[in-house]
Amino acid sequence: MLKHLVGSGFTGPVYPVNPTADSVNSVPSFPSIGALPTVPDLAVIVVPKHKVLGVVRECVATGVKGIVVITAGFREVGGDGVELERELLALVRENGLRMVGPNCMGVMNTSPDVSMNATFAPTMPPNGPIAFMSQSGAMGMTILDYASEYGIGISQFVSMGNKADVSGNDLIEYWQDDDEVGVILMYIEGFGNPRHFTTLARRATRRKPVLAVKAGRSEAGAKAASSHTGALAQVDIATDALFAQCGVLRADTVEALFDAAIAFSKAPLPQGRRVAILTNAGGPGIIIADACEGFGLEVAPLSDETQSRLREHLPAEASVANPVDMIASATPEQVERAMRIIVADPGIDAVIASYVPLGLEAPVIAAAINRGAEGCGKPILAVLMSKRGLPQGMAELDDTPIPAYRFPESAARALGAMWRYRQWLDRPVAEVRRFDVDGARVGQIIASALREDRERLTVPEAFEVLDCYGIPIAPFRIASTEEDVVEAARELGYPVVLKAVSQDIVHKTEAGAVKLDMRDEDSLRAAWKEIADALDSESPEARDAGVLVQRMWTGGRETIVGMATEPQFGPIVMFGLGGVYVEVQRDVAFRVQPVSTVDALEMIRSLRGYRILEGVRGEEGVDLATLSEVIERVSQMVGDHPEIQEMDINPFLAFPEGQASVAVDARFRVGPADSPKGRSW
User: Fold this and answer.
1) What is the spatial distance between Cα 588 and Cα 575, in angstroms, rounded to a whole number?
2) Does domain 476-552 have CATH number 3.40.50.1820?
3) Nearest alpha-carbon partner for 604 in 638, 652, 567
4) What is the pLDDT at residue 505?
5) Is the bond leading into 656 cis (omega within 30 degrees of zero)?
6) Cα-Cα-Cα-Cα dihedral of 622, 628, 630, 635, to 10°?
7) Which CATH superfamily is domain 1-103 in?
8) What is the pTM of this model?
9) CA 272, 275, 277: angle at the middle one, nearest 5?
10) What angle do CA 596, 653, 531 make, to 5 degrees?
């Protein structure tokens, strides 16, 4: 640590403290913190774990206000380490210190005014607009090496370790107001306070992009993360929902994280998604085009004028459609002219220029791309497909607003991230609506179930809860005799559905306790007798609970609105296509409660099967405003009543505007509000 601090050219004094050494690395040492000639701003603690508390007490007595605890052996090892970390944190909090760590690899600030490398990393990246936090020390060191090798400018780096005091939330709150930070990157394995993160990140992403790699996406990865941070597999669903709601861009890999960071740190944001591709080889052009489509971009047609001007300057064999293939013999002059023509096309929002150096050095082509794009104000990304020439080509573009990549997919992925961020900035500020509901009655229903030691609400109770929150339900009656069933059907009107109410029968259809499409009294009486026999075979209590008689609704689109509790995140609201779509295709979207109107509409439109709701082949689309409001009302309901641990409205039948959309079935699981039982979707 001392070697790196001194070697990085730190602009302030560095004091080694060691009671048994006169000097460390030829730098005079002091026996204690109190013996120092001045009070340090920061103490980097690298001592055995049983000595850490004593050193921190020395810091308190001397007036040191900031500490970085490198030492491991705390909460991450369990046992006595948990109590040791608790004592450490209490000491820090009681005395007004701020602490990074313990169990971290340090902090870095590359500003020329500071030039501090207080980490294990042997090299310090160049100064730049990127701030980076890492929950993993090993990953942090690897990423700093990567940034140094490729010349990626890092402003500040923090290895959070156990984040006992300073957390990712603190860093976001600090960096959002730091003018030297233009892009915030995160490598995280678990959240401390997800809801506070949402508030901070939503505000920060309105000012600058925040990009994250969240480990534990797969079940195996989550198990590995669990041993290190306590992360759970189901947290990944909540993480995606959380990021979507607060504008954080999630990267699948560290490489993708830095691909996007390079673009954000250099190029302006696109105004739209229309992309032009310029290349000297057909293959890369096709790969880029495919990748652009996959990342939500459009390979837009060039105007007739643009194509005409390109033909004047390119060989006859060249293709002037998009992608523009200049062919392998393209000269730097032709690259520059083609760039100048393409960026002037008003129908193009961004350009990816790909070049395979065939006899020409990458720096020459990079310079030509830069000259052609100069002053255009649009994002230009370069792909220099040569390992030998890439560093020199990137160096040529270092002082330009053009990020450079080795592979075509990297550039398309980075531009796709920029487009997603542009959409976030253009997104209306989300406001959470509150509706006039009968929450008191719902509280009574839930309290009654808990007093009776029931985890599940009955069908009538479930429908009453929905009704209290203004969610439309299909009319129904509860009947316990054959004559009651017949009378209920007369009131509701045929056709009707019969369904057993008893909670003792879990799979009602398989048990013969559901009968559909009863169109007259004779078929209704026959259906009642079959259900009654099925109930009698279960238990007397099952017969006593009766059956639900409900008007049968036909047509519409089956959807599902649900909620599950994740212990760390709280209620997670779900929307998707119902029936076989949710069971087989799992075409669903999630958001963390509370859900705004904007969030709800995004959930609906994000489904793969959205066109089914929108209307296809001349069919009228469903009332999206009603669907959005149902999602929002469910969000308010589960937020108002934390005892609701899990619920489904399946199906909620959605109809076109002007027709009644209704909930046909609903299930609720409840429990004490202070002991949620999470469920993995």
Assistant:
1) 6
2) no
3) 652
4) 62
5) no
6) 160
7) NAD(P)-binding Rossmann-like Domain (3.40.50.720)
8) 0.86
9) 165
10) 130
| Same fold: 104-263 with 476-552 | no
Residue 225: per-residue pLDDT:
38
Short-list 579, 548, 580, 569, CA closest to 654: 579
Number of residues assigned to the chain = 681
Max mean pLDDT range (419-423, 534-538, 565-569): 419-423
**Distance from C-alpha of 533 to C-alpha of 662, rounded to nearest angstrom:** 30
Angle at 72 between CA 66 and CA 78, to 5 degrees: 120
| Highest mean pLDDT: which range of 92-96, 151-155, 282-286, 328-332 | 92-96
Give the CA distances from residue 489 to residues 259, 477, 492, 555, in Å, rounded to whole numbers and listed in that order: 63, 8, 5, 20
Cβ-based neighbours of 194, under 8 Å, separated by 6 or more: 238, 242, 568, 569, 570, 592
* pLDDT at residue number 511: 62
* Residue among 594, 662, 583 nearest 627 (CA): 662
Omega of the bond leading into 357 within 30 degrees of 0 (cis) = no
Token couple for 28: 């005079």
Where b means 16+ CB within 10 Å and e means fewer, 210-235 reads bbbbbbbbeeebbeebbeebebbbbb
CA distances from 425 to 9, 346, 416, 530, 617 (A): 39, 22, 14, 59, 34
